[in-house]
Write a structure and sequence with these properties.
Number of helices: 24
Oligomer: single chain
Strand order of the largest sheet: 3-2-1-9-10
CATH superfamily of the largest domain: HUPs
CATH topology of the largest domain: Rossmann fold
Shape: elongated
């Protein structure tokens, strides 16, 4: 084992903890299939969303950690359950009458309401793949329709059929009485209509590998369970898929804990140990309520990525996945600046420290080298004082503060500038609330004004910060935080803010003098 692998074996970051479980599962050896398999699942009745991103990002982090432990090949399957029946017409799709006429058909058969692809399933599968590709995820895409029809699941389906009664004994206690009366793990696909039927199975024929049911016309019909003629209900289907593909690791949200337990029971019936599993917590809204797409009470992925880079969203996913976290707009600036801190630290760290750095996991070990001289918080404050409506306004100040920076040479910083302007316009500007200083604060601000007037135009951020700190000490603020809160509330209209030395250096000495003078004169700083 190399030194790199030894350090990885000792790493405490949660992806490494999970990866070591997978390594133990396979006994440190390459499985018979030739690789260790990580899997994520997706229901293509809707478009990919923030939960989809979170699950694939986290699984990728575990996969990457595993690859540091050993030389065993790995794969990540993103599995689309596109053979599932179309149950209801979503509110956000066009051609609702056409869609309503296809209720019950497999998603891979329902026509695409947008007219772009052969089916609704293919439309949403394509969107999923475009979505995953846009984030640079490495994966193999699997279609339930293709796998069922290819016969790849046949052996597993015949095993389910042979253990039919035992599977029913696992499933029935989890169902209500009415559902128990009609339930079967097999859903036949009607030869007449092509619909995925949820009907009672009247007879199972292990020898012929088929089931008998009564179709919608009341006729007795016999179909094989193989070759895509039957689809499993989703809970048995999930376990069957893991069994058939020999999945080694799969995550699921807290809301699926019971389904995971059920899957383990089905694996036991099939004589399989099943994959290593990981349960992550769900997201909450600002008031602590579970986020629901139907309620619209959370922050969507598209909204996050309007105001911050994807790396900040990946950090949010990395942090404490087993802890419920509030997902709303106010968390964005902190996540951006935390990400910048972790990224900048990475350049100075050896492997043992890097393995604990979230930026290493976010970038699968290849961390960008561009240094970002300014925090997102500073950019937001700069946008506030100059009421920025475009990136050019901020860049005029940034180029003076950091002459080597430009949109061309520091593209990530340029992205942050654009995000900061949008975030300021939509969330900061409407909430700015300036106040006038009291007598003690006024005296301290007058001293600050004198210091700024005596400063050279190229005074460093550290020099100015030292002076600001000294003024707070001189005026005997009971807590220096009260002095800095005064600066934030009087000059920036906010209760929190940046290192003022950095802010004054970035904004410019003369501009800062004008800002303090305006505050002392009682001018309107919001314009």
């Amino acid at each position: 084992m190399s030194n790199h692998q030894q350090l990885a074996m000792q790493a405490k970051a949660w992806p490494f903890e999970e990866a070591r479980k997978v390594l133990a599962r396979v006994g440190g050896k390459t499985p018979e299939k030739g690789y260790v398999l990580f899997q994520t699942g997706y229901g293509p009745s809707g478009l990919p969303h923030i939960g989809t991103f979170g699950e694939v990002a986290r699984t990728t982090m575990v996969r990457n950690a595993f690859e540091q432990l050993c030389d065993i090949p790995t794969k990540l399957f993103c599995f689309s359950d596109d053979l599932d029946g179309f149950r209801k017409v979503p509110d956000n799709l066009p051609n609702k009458e056409m869609l309503a006429a296809n209720i019950g058909q497999p998603l891979s058969v329902v026509p695409d309401p947008f007219g772009e692809y052969e089916s609704l399933g293919q439309h949403n599968n394509t969107r999923l793949r475009q979505f995953l590709d846009s984030f640079g995820f490495q994966y193999d895409f699997l279609s339930s329709t293709e796998i069922y029809k290819s016969g790849q699941f046949d052996e597993a389906l015949l095993e389910i059929l042979s253990k039919y009664d035992q599977i029913m004994n696992v499933m029935l206690p989890t169902l209500g009485k009415e559902r128990q009366a009609t339930y079967s793990p097999f859903m036949p696909i009607c030869p007449k209509t092509g619909k995925v039927l949820q009907v009672p199975i009247l007879e199972t024929k292990v020898d012929s590998g088929s089931v008998v049911f009564r179709d919608e016309d009341g006729d007795l019909v016999e179909v094989p369970v193989t070759g895509g003629h039957c689809k499993l209900q989703w809970k048995p289907d999930w376990a069957m898929r893991q069994y058939a593909l020999d999945v080694d690791y799969e995550m699921a949200g807290k809301d699926l804990i019971d389904s995971v337990k059920l899957g383990k029971k089905i694996h036991s019936v099939l004589g399989s140990k099943g994959p290593e599993t990981f349960t992550y917590e769900l997201f909450l809204d600002e008031s602590g309520q579970k986020i629901s797409k139907s309620k619209g009470n959370g922050l969507s992925m598209e909204e996050w990525l309007t105001y911050a880079p994807q790396e900040s969203l990946a950090l949010f996913m990395y942090n404490k996945p087993r802890t419920a976290k509030k997902l709303y707009f106010d968390v964005i600036p902190r996540m951006v600046d935390d990400y910048l801190t972790f990224r900048d630290k990475a350049g100075e760290q050896e492997d043992d420290k890097l393995f604990e750095n979230p930026a290493w996991h976010i970038h699968t070990g290849s961390i960008p080298s561009e240094k970002t001289a300014l925090s997102f918080g500073i950019l937001l404050n700069l946008a506030s004082v100059c009421n920025a409506s475009d990136s050019g306004r901020l860049w005029a100040f940034i180029k003076r503060y950091a002459p080597n920076a430009s949109p061309e040479t520091t593209p990530f910083l340029d992205q942050l500038v654009g995000f900061a302007v949008r975030y300021y316009q939509d969330f900061v500007k409407p909430t700015l609330k300036y106040r006038t200083p009291d007598d003690k604060e006024r005296a301290a601000l007058e001293d600050l004004l004198a210091v700024l007037k005596a400063s050279s135009l190229d005074a460093t951020a550290e020099d100015i910060q030292t002076e600001v700190y000294s003024i707070g000490k001189k005026h005997e603020f009971e807590n220096l935080r009260d002095w800095f809160r005064c600066l934030y509330e009087v000059l920036l209209g906010q209760s929190q803010g940046p290192r003022m030395g950095t802010f004054f250096a970035l904004y410019g000495v003369n501009e800062s003098i004008s800002l303090v003078e305006k505050a002392l004169a009682g001018g309107d700083l919001s314009v």
